Amino acid sequence: MHCWNILKHEKKWDDRCSSKKQKTTSNTSPGRSTPTSIESRFDVHVEALTLERTNSRPDDKKEKERQCQDRSLRLDSPFVAWPGSGAARAQGGARASMETAGAGGRRGTVKQLNVGGKLFALEVSSLSLSLSLEAFPIFVDRDPALLSAILSAIRAPSAAPAFPAGVLLDEAHFYGLHAQLLAALSPPPLLGFSASLASTLSPASEPFHTALAALHDGSLCLAHGAGLLTYYSPALDHLTTFRTHLHRITSLRQLPPGLAVAGSSFSPGLHVYDFLEGRHVASVQWSDPTDLRVQKAKVIAIAARPPADAADKNTPILATFECPHRENCILVFDPVTLKPIQEIGRQSGSAAKSSVPGRVVHLQDLGLVFAASVSSGAFGYSGYMRLWDIRSGDMVWETSEPGGKGRSSRFGDPFADADVDVKQHILYKVCSKSGDIGAADLRCLGNDPWVYMSSGPRGNGGGHGSVLHCYKSQVFVSRKDGLEVWSRLEEQSNGTCNLAEQPRAKENLNSEGINENCFMSSYVDTEEDAKRGMIQTMEGGGDRLFLTREEMQGVEVWQSSHLAGAISLS
Amino acid sequence: MLQLHEFNPVNQPPTPSFPMASTSVVTLNVGGELFQTTAATLSRAGAASPLASLGPTPASAPHFLDRDPRLFALLLSFLRRGSLASSDPPSAALLSEARHFGVDAALLASLSPASAFSPLALRPSVLLPLAGRVAPSAVAVSPSPHSAALFAAHGGVVTRFDAALASRSSVLTPLPTVDSLVAVSPALALAGARDFPGVQLCRIPDDGPATAREVLSWPGSPSATVLSMAATAASEASSPWLFTSFESARRNSSAVVAFDLNSLSPVAEIGRKEVYGADVEAAIPATRLDWLDGHNLLLAAGSHSGPAGVVGDICLWDVRASTTVPVWEFREKVDCFADIAASDTLSSLFKVGAASGEVFMADLRMLGGGSIGIEPWVCIGDGQRAAAAASAGRKDGNGCRIGCYLNWVFVARGGEVEVWTQVELAQEAGGKKLMRRNWLGTGPSMSTARGGDEEGVKETTKIVSWAFGGSRMVLARDDKQSIEVWDSAMAAISVNP
Questions:
Q1: Is the separation of the CB atoms in A318 and A374 below 8 Å?
Q2: Does the pLDDT value for residue B404 go beyond 80?
Q3: Helix axis angle, A165-175 relative to A178-185, nearest 10°?
């Protein structure tokens, strides 16, 4: 390391890096996912074994043998590693590759790498390492054991890797195999009815969660203890823990790349932290020059979760602010400049119907903002749901329970929690007394749009304290006696859980509205799991469901698995 | 077999920006297995290593090394990456192989690098049992350029654990008990006792028997006992110094003596104090020394508990300027320190108030030249509580310790450790620097909340001594026959039963 520290500042190193950069830019290979990965790693040493082209003509017989061997290896698998090692093999392989390239015009399909004396052949599309125009194997001064561990992890995803995942992912960055390795290490698609508890993430210090934010790539940002933020990578490696200036973070969202938006219901302002550097980047306040009472507003809820396939990276951040005297509104921020764009739904906060929304969801493709507020007490639950047009700031639809404008068939059974499925455009709520799930199609909202689903293994807990979370077209509902998931039957038959990818299912929905018979509910957890405590928050990210329980340390990670998990009885 | 082609670096077109000598491929035949690497990688083993002399070779004529190829593969991987790839601690076989190639120091240093230290990721990782029946009284960790070897003093025995926490070696000192322990390097620790004369040098070399023969003592009073010690960081330009606070056996004179640790000779006598008559409070000996490397300052602080309360004396010495007049001196009367520490990176002094138990901070840049009377301390904890506790004459800070390591300040309260982090707000948000508090581990709230109903409840006893080094925190607890090692481990997933 010391030598490296000295070396990296040498001019020649820079020269070399820059010369290599030029080469890389001139050569574009399709599999490149991280263009700067090679230059940023220090151990880059690409050295061609010197072979004069004229010198390396062997006799025809040997050449043919080599070609045969080469071809058979190539057909076998996209990743071929010669079992033997050493320079002799490397040079032999070099000649073979060059000859095949010359003869069959297959140059570029299989690339040969001499990694620390061991020879690897990889399909070029799978490898981002450039300089593939050379015919002989490229010498890379790196650990061959790590590359073979990466390749075997990609080939057989279920096997436990021989090295820590973090080390392998770091190394895979160099070869450009990071995305493939990450996919191999990720769990299969999340199916609520077959998910099981995979692990519990527990930060080292003060592991009492206060908020969590997951991202579509499976990474998790966790707020815990007194103002601590911990970030877990998509492979759930602990990357960093740092202290924010807030004393307790109660709302948190990730703002890729590398930023976290945090708010606290105890101190004012919305704060942006760079969690890779552990640095405070900016803070935003709700201020109104025309109204001096608007000051020291605290943040109650944040919505800043761009969907995985969002083409528009500039999805605004939404946050609900509440002043000490309960005046509140939804503020829309630009994610780049962090300046307020618009103020939506300012209200006095003097009654339950005008209290600050505890949940905001941005329905980007509809241009709507969903806001819901629930308050509970000895009298039971009361709350409202509203849909706002984000451009005009007008309210589009509203319902409040109990005793809203509309004639509710479930009078006296107000909702305990509500969420909206952004892809399916369905609004879900859980009733506080009966515990029934209500669904409403966003495209035909009226006075009483709710379709109630009462089938399922619902226990006696009702809906008191329930948390509802929509993720991957499934609805996760926590109850006193466990975690329930509602999934749609068509999805199951098609083997995929994403409704948006199935045009037929969507047509059905359009013509018929919501059919309560096609929803099936099942328990996710066992009774032992439920005994650990009531579920406090749920958040889906990647193919994982993160949940926290009251008075329990850490975050539970639930995911589907292909592993049988057999328990040995002997 | 295949015909191999001659590799001749001379025939290569000269590349002035990247000379061939450092880039060419070196082929090694280690126990029958071929390895290829570069001379640059091998030179990371250090000039003394047999690997550094291996130059570029043609692939047909590799260097032959008669060693185990499996172990060599791990060492070569270490040289390439700067750390071991596998998360398990290295085996004894790997360490002895590393010693053969002269990379054992680098290998041990990479196991617990100070750059990986993150207090909020510290969790208990290892308990190291100690031989005998005496509980540890002092612990120390060898400082940063060296590997983070652990020293623990139990009774008169000083035991060293290597940075891999795999091997230990002990040495018997003439002291019946050790009160202060300073680690200078993995091979040298210094032990002193409050009631026995002299500083004992415990030499524990890797090769050869451990000895504790040499003694450093105050030339003015050879029977003087040792109150506190602090060592300067070793640098290439100068040999490390040791500052030792001595008090004469009759307890009527005291001084801080600086020793050169290479020549083992006293260099300077700093701030000699004599007690005349009964005026003990006029010459309080320094019970706490701390060296500020970046500022070239020595913190010497002592306190005296009398019938009128606790009185303290804090001095900052610039040793090069004067050994008789301190740069800054402060007499503490209200909420005197229970413990005091100096942070180099934060350029501040920190103390725990003996009465309030709250943490105070004094910025070195705001101290001013010798202006006694201006209150330098700013309470970074609960200021109102501190004022109330001080006026009520409480003793909440009794037994608290404070220490600084890298960018953090640590406070031990009973059996728990809290950490203070500096948080800097963005420029547009004011750019203020705030100190924020957290507990390490679950903190005391959890121990009480879970109290009794689970068998996993860990009774945390009082922390007797602690040390920070590398990526670790080391604790010695009251009446525990082992030392506790906390590591900022990267693994955070605990697999559920």
A1: no
A2: yes
A3: 150
Residues of A368-400 as b/e, b for ≥16 C-beta within 10 angstroms? bbbbbbbbeeeeebbbbbbbbebeebeebbbbb
Q: Which amino acid, A7?
A: L
What whole-number distance in Å separates Cα of residue A279 and Cα of residue A301? 22
Using CB atoms, pick whichever of A146, A205, A281 lies closest to residue B441.
A205
Encoding tokens for residue B377?
């301390």
CB atoms inside a 10 Å sphere around CB B232 = 21
Instruction: Look at residue B296 and give its three-state secondary structure.
Output: coil
**Can you read off the two tokens belonging to residue B346?**
């934060």
- The CA-based angle B41-B43-B47, given to 5 degrees, is 160
Chain B within 8 Å of A532 (Cβ-Cβ)?
no
The mean pLDDT value for B338-346 works out to 92
Q: Which of A90-104, A243-257, A358-372, A405-419 has the lowest mean pLDDT?
A: A90-104
* pLDDT, tens digit, 9 for 90 and up, residues B82-94: 888 877 778 888 9
SS3 B61: coil
Cβ-contact B415, B425 below 8 angstroms = no
> How far is residue A285's CA from residue A272's CA, in Å, rounded to a whole number?
12
How far does CA A120 lie from the centroid of its chain? 32
pTM for this predicted structure: 0.81
A contacts of B33 (beta carbons < 8 Å): 85-86
Q: What is the CA radius of gyration of chain A?
A: 28
In what side-by-side order are the strands of the sheet with B25-30?
A: B33-38, B25-30, B63-65
The C-alpha of A163 sits at a distance from chain B's nearest C-alpha, in angstroms, of 5
String of DSSP letters for B348-411: EEEEEETTT--EEEEEGGGS-SS-TTS---EESS-HHHHHHHHHHT--TTTT-EEEEETTEEEE
pLDDT band at A125 (very low <50, low <70, confident <90, very high): low
Chain A residues within an 8 Å CB radius of B494: 199-202, 554
Q: How far apart are the first and last CA of chain B?
A: 56
- CB atoms A87 and B106 under 8 Å: no
Across the interface, whether the CB atoms of B85 and A241 are under 8 A apart is answered: no
Name B330's Cβ contacts closer than 8 Å, sequence gap at least 6. Answer: B313, B314, B315, B372, B376
Cβ atoms within 10 A of the Cβ of B375, count?
Answer: 10
Query: In sequence order, what DSSP letters do the residues of B209-255 get, joined into one string?
Result: --B---EE--TT-TTPEEEEEEEPPP-SSS--EEEEEEE-TTSSEEE
Copy the structure tokens of residue A184. 């191999």
- Taking CB atoms and an 8 Å cut-off, how many pairs form between chains A and B? 221
Strand partners, B348: B343, B363
Up-side HSE of residue B102: CA atoms within 13 Å toward CB?
12
User: Residue A566: is it exposed, middle or buried by C-beta count within 10 angstroms (0-12/13-18/19+)?
Assistant: exposed
**B308 at the A interface (CB within 8 A)?**
no
Please tell me which residue, B234 or B247, carries the higher pLDDT value: B247
* Confidence grade of residue A379 (pLDDT, cut at 50, 70, 90): confident
Q: Is A563 on the interface with B (CB under 8 A)?
A: no
Residues A25, A32: Cα–Cα separation, whole Å: 11
Q: Does the structure show a pLDDT above 60 at B219?
A: yes
The gap from C-alpha B413 to its chain's centroid, in whole angstroms, comes to 20
Backbone angles phi, psi at A491, to 5 degrees: -60, -40
Chain segment A513-525, per-residue pLDDT in tens = 666 667 788 888 8
The 8-class DSSP code of residue A61 comes to H
Chain B residues whose CB is inside 8 A of the A2 CB are: 44, 106
What is the 3-class SS of B169-185, one letter each residue? EEEECCCCCCCEEEEEE
Rg of the Cα atoms in chain B = 26
Q: Which helix (H) or strand (E) holds A530?
A: helix A527-530
